[in-house]
């Protein structure tokens, strides 16, 4: 099967062309070793199957960012038989810059002159036959989002795959940029040295190597350094550089870029004509409002509120259906399966485990649909443009606002939204600070504790304070990470502001579908495994204790035998069940773990060492790793008091119990809230961090520094509060 | 003719690039985006908070932070 690589600038309509070429026959994976998505698909024509690989959009092959390196490596590899260079016809000159580098690979190329409709609207007339002759390859006019020119493009690709159009063979007549006598002389000398190593030039021209070495591409330098001819190559490289810089008065990379742009400029002058200057472009008029001084931020806020509402308020409905479905499954299974360990594994381990994965799906799909929509319209770049100043103060990028704002709803989809950040350092820092944004799952914990220990107004202040504290920690952590771990990774903010375009619904839907399946495959498995592990820890060995189970059944039978009214009997049975679960939980591995942890938590939640039940905090917090709202449910079980209040009562039984018996004080309760805010991200978020960073190291780092920071901040709360005279 | 840094220009002002001086990664990126010697650039507008700026170069729109636009030396008519 022949493989075709789609290469082109960002925003050139590559993805819609890819979708039009491959239809539904797509597969999303990952490039080995990096966080860049690999999308590939197939089409079949004239009995021949062709694999199409959609490369990340790139402006050049000079290989600095992860995206560019992936694209360059693949194009240079033997895997890519034919290159389809997608060109944005309305922005031809900048697009042809990449073309100059592609041509140096001397592989069969087909040029897709895409977005021709936009170019015509801007007043451009392009002479396609001349362009084809000057580029030395077939040029096909396409409008990717309307599927125009796709058949012609397929035919041109097949002709190249078969090699049955010798007049267009780039090896026969390679059109190329000439860099002037001085540079060409050095290229020849350097290429000669490179050719000493047959391995280097087995599949790639010596000239390609010489050019990449001259412009200082790190991967080329590295590979040449491993060659047996490394010394000769490096000596020649140093001579060439010194000679050129002395003679031409600029760095070699500057010279090469100038020549390439010169070539692109000349080409456009040769084949293109622009009729007059169209009246002010629609994009310009929209930008005057959308990035304007007065309406820029209000409109931005409205857009963010709309996305937040769609994701977390509207998304709550499908999420509730998922929960209801899992609840039904749980109840049905519990009612029909005989009581026992296996049933418990299935009913209390597997079903909630699957549920804890599925529950993220609606918000992930909606948020990713919105993000894809913002990207495709071009508004994402504008929003980043107006937000960059603020985000930059935090050591982040203009586009980091999406994860931060959406993190207030749920961290898990928010972290998936870091995909829009191109530079690795920007993405990693954003991933590491997003979990500090106080998500809605932490709210029940605040409400439980604030309700139990504070007066209403104080309680409201404490809840608002937690959100502000989370934001402040994110700011400081972002800045500190930028200045320490990521100090040497310089990610310049050089961002194109593409023209506004209407997105294609199909692209958005495909994107949502893709994100959902990738989440289920990559993060879902980890979340499910973690949920099952936590079930095991909090149920064993008590669950396997037959005497305990027998006593519970006997007590249940005794209640039923009393013949109480239905409501009363149900309440009694529920109390018994809670007590039974409490007994299991309080003797479980998690409880033992909580007791081991107790000394570590003592300075935070039990500074005077007076609380007999302090170990229960550790149990609740351990279980809360699954999802932070579970802290409440677990506290209900370990304290054997219900979390739901009676009608009319000011405090729920759990709140009453916490207040009267747990030994927590308002100050230690506040420290508890701070700890819940900051400590390790929940399991769903950790799964997503692993999926997005593809690195166990960064995932563990995120868990570890969250724990450490949470401990320190909770300690400061307690110690500071006591200094100020609070208890 | 006056020599300035691109970062010193306000909205609506423009000039011709004389040289680009930045560390290797930034330089590479700026060159790749078409900010080469002799090229005409115009500042289209500034972000509401004054940074970054939006440029028009080679007929397309590009945004740069002050830190990066200060690396670009230009000559202006005025």
UniProtKB/TrEMBL annotation, chain A:
The chain crosses the membrane at residues 294-314, 350-374, 428-454, 460-481, 519-538, 667-690, 697-718. One of its GO terms (cellular component) is plasma membrane. Pfam families: FeoB_C, FeoB_Cyto, FeoB_N, Gate. InterPro entries: Fe2_transport_prot-B (IPR003373), Fe2_transport_prot_B_C (IPR011640), FeoB_Cyto (IPR041069), FeoB_GTPase (IPR050860), G_FEOB_dom (IPR030389), Gate_dom (IPR011642), GTP-bd (IPR006073), P-loop_NTPase (IPR027417). It comes from the Bacteria. Residues 1-163 form the FeoB-type G domain. The keyword Nucleotide-binding applies. Mg(2+) 1 binds at residue 22. Keywords: Cell inner membrane, Cell membrane, GTP-binding, Ion transport, Iron, Iron transport, Magnesium, Membrane, Metal-binding, Nucleotide-binding, Transmembrane, Transmembrane helix, Transport. Mg(2+) 2 binds at residues 19-20, 23. Probable transporter of a GTP-driven Fe(2+) uptake system. This is Ferrous iron transport protein B. The gene is feoB-2.
UniProtKB/TrEMBL annotation, chain B:
SUPFAM superfamilies: C-terminal domain of transcriptional repressors. This is Iron transporter FeoA. Keywords: Iron. The keyword Iron applies. It comes from the Bacteria. It comes from Mesoterricola sediminis. GO terms for molecular function: transition metal ion binding. Residues 4-76 form the Ferrous iron transporter FeoA-like domain. The keyword Iron applies. InterPro entries: Fe-transptr_FeoA-like, FeoA, FeoA_core_dom, Transcriptional_repressor_C.
């Amino acid at each position: 099967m022949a493989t075709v690589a789609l290469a082109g600038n960002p925003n050139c309509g590559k993805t819609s062309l890819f979708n039009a070429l491959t239809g539904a026959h797509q597969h999303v994976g990952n490039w080995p070793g990096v966080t860049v998505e690999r999308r590939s698909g197939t089409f079949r024509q004239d009995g021949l199957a062709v694999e199409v690989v959609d490369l990340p959009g790139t402006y050049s092959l000079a290989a600095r960012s992860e995206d560019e390196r992936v694209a360059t490596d693949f194009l240079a590899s033997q895997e890519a038989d034919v290159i389809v260079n997608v060109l944005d016809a309305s922005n031809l000159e900048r697009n042809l810059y990449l073309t100059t580098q592609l041509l140096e690979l001397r592989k069969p190329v087909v040029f897709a002159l895409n977005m021709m409709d936009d170019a015509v609207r801007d007043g451009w007339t392009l002479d396609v036959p001349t362009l084809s002759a000057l580029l030395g390859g077939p040029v096909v006019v396409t409008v990717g989002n309307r599927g125009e020119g796709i058949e012609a493009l397929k035919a041109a690709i097949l002709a190249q795959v078969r090699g049955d159009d010798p007049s267009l063979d780039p090896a026969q007549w390679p059109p190329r940029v000439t860099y002037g006598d001085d540079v060409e002389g050095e290229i020849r000398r350097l290429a000669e040295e490179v050719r000493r190593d047959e391995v280097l030039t087995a599949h790639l021209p010596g000239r390609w190597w010489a050019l990449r070495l001259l412009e200082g591409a790190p991967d080329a330098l590295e590979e040449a350094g491993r060659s047996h001819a490394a010394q000769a190559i490096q000596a020649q490289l140093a001579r060439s550089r010194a000679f050129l810089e002395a003679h031409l008065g600029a760095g070699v990379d500057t010279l090469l870029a100038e020549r390439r742009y010169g070539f692109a400029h000349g080409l456009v002058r040769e084949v293109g004509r622009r009729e007059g200057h169209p009246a002010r472009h629609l994009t310009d008029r929209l930008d005057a409002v959308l990035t304007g001084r007065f309406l820029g931020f209000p409109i931005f806020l409205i857009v963010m509120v709309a996305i937040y509402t769609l994701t977390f308020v509207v998304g709550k409905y499908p999420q509730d259906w998922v929960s209801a479905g899992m609840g039904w499954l749980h109840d049905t299974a519990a009612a029909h399966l005989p009581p026992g360990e296996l049933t418990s594994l299935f009913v209390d381990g597997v079903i909630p485990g699957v549920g804890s994965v599925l529950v993220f799906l609606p918000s992930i799909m909606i948020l990713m649909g919105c993000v894809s929509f913002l990207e495709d319209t071009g508004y994402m770049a504008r929003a980043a443009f107006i937000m960059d100043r603020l985000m930059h103060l935090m050591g982040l990028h203009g586009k980091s606002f999406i994860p931060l704002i959406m993190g207030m709803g749920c961290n898990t989809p928010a972290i998936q939204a870091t995909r829009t950040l191109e530079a690795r350092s920007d993405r990693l820092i954003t991933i590491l600070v997003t979990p500090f944004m106080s998500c809605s799952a932490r709210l029940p914990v605040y409400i439980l504790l604030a309700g139990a220990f504070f007066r209403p107004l104080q309680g409201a202040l404490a809840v608002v304070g937690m959100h502000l504290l989370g934001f402040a920690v994110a700011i400081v952590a972002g800045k500190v990470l930028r200045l320490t771990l990521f100090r040497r990774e310089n990610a310049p903010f050089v961002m194109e502001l593409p023209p506004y375009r209407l997105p294609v619904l199909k692209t958005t839907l495909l994107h949502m579908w893709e994100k959902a399946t990738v989440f289920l495959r990559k993060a879902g498995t980890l979340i499910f495994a973690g949920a099952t592990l936590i079930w095991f820890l909090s149920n064993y060995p008590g669950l396997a204790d037959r005497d305990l189970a027998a006593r519970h059944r006997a007590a249940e039978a005794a209640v039923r035998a009393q013949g109480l009214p239905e409501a009363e009997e149900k309440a009694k049975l529920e109390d018994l069940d809670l007590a039974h679960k409490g007994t299991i939980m309080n003797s479980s591995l998690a409880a033992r773990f909580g007791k081991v942890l107790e000394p570590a938590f003592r300075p935070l939640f039990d500074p005077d060492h007076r609380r007999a039940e302090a170990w229960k905090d550790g149990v609740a917090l351990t279980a809360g790793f699954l999802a932070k709202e579970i802290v409440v449910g677990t506290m209900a079980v370990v304290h054997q008091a219900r979390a739901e209040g009676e009608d009319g009562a000011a405090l729920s039984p759990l709140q009453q119990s916490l207040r009267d018996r747990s030994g927590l004080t308002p100050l230690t309760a506040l420290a508890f809230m701070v700890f819940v805010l900051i400590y390790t991200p929940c399991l769903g978020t950790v799964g997503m961090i692993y999926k997005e960073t593809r690195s166990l190291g960064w995932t563990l780092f995120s868990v570890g520094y969250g724990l450490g920071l949470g401990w320190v901040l909770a300690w400061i709360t307690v110690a500071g509060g006591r200094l100020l005279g609070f208890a | 003719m006056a020599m300035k840094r691109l970062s010193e220009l306000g909205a609506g002002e423009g000039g011709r690039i004389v040289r680009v001086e930045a560390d290797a990664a930034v330089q590479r990126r700026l060159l790749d985006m078409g900010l080469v010697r002799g090229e005409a650039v115009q500042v289209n507008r500034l972000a509401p908070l004054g940074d970054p700026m939006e440029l028009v170069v080679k007929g397309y729109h590009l945004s740069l932070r002050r830190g990066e636009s200060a690396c670009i030396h230009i000559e202006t008519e005025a």
